[in-house]
Amino acid sequence: MAIAMSKKMWEWVNGTLMEFRHCFSNKRSFGWFVVIMLGLMLRTDTIGLTGIVRELSLLGSAYAAILHFFRAESWHTVMVRTAWLRIVSKLPLLYRVAGRAVLVGDGVKQSKEGKHMPGVVKLHQESENSAKGSYIFGHMFGGIGVLLGHAGQKLYCLLLSLKLHEGVGAIHGWGKEEAEEEESHVVKMIKDAFEAVQILGPSLLLLDRLYLTIPMLKALAAKPGLQVVTKAKSNATAYYDPKPKTGPGAKAKKGESVKVASLFQTKASEFVTEAAYVYGKVQSVRYYSLDLLWGKKLYQKLRFVLVILDGRANILVSTDLTLTPIQIIELYCCRFKIECAFRELKQVVAGFSYRFWSKSMPKLSRYKSNAANQERLAALTDEDAQAHIESTVRAIEGYALLSAIALGLLQLISLLFSDLFTNGRTRFMRTVSNAIPSEATVADYMRKNIYQLFRFLPDLAITTIIRERQNDPDGPPFEQVS
Question: Does the N terminus or the C terminus of the chain have fewer Cβ atoms within 10 A?
Answer without folding.
Answer: N
